Description:
Low-confidence stretches: 99-109
Strand content: 5-15%
Order of helices and strands: HHHHHEHEEHHHEE
Structural class: mainly alpha
Strand order of the largest sheet: 1-3-2
Oligomer: single chain
Mean pLDDT: 77
Number of strands: 5
Amino acid sequence: MGEENKKVVIKVEIPEDDYKVLSKIAKSSGYSLTVDFIKDAILSLAESGEKNISKREITEYISRRIEKVVQDLLNPFTQKIDSLSSRIAELEEMMESIGGGKEEHQYKHQPERETKPQKRRTALEVLKEQGIIFSESVQWLRSPEAYFKKLEAGGAVVLNIDDEKVAMDREYWERFKAKLETIAIREPKEVEDILVSEFGENASRLFEKLSKKGLVYYDDDLNFWLVSEEINR
Length: 233
């Protein structure tokens, strides 16, 4: 294959307000996706040499595309870390329930050694740190169902989407809903990009699941996204 067939992926990050402006321009120009409009504009500039786009716009677009690539590369490792954190929390709770008698006996035989017990993180503390946990990431648990019931009993928001459970720290869930009400962009894929920039990849995954089930929707009268009344939270 010749050199002309090689493709280069780039990314750029721009303020959300600027993105909304570009989105309106793209729609008025007949584009369904803003990224397609920007790509064609850049290619047109490169081919014709016309300076229809400012250097600032080109730089911001390239930066956003680069960040997207990096995020995609890091995402698999982030998911593994989230799963490991949940597993550690479960094991710590199991060890705590086994009994502190052995630890007490051990400390009695070491009077000269001052031991400061480490604070064990609970499942709720892990959720608070991560913001969101999907049941798919904790299937290694002996009883994932009991795990999510425990989180819900502790005040977490637990949603059932098809055959998957999603647990969220309540503050995270409220911020997620509030953010949706600021997004005046109809295209789901573009909304996902905005959510990733503020909440991380898991927020994009959550939005995708909710939108496919109609549990979040774009309100044409209000011009922003809303959570369905079916989610009684």
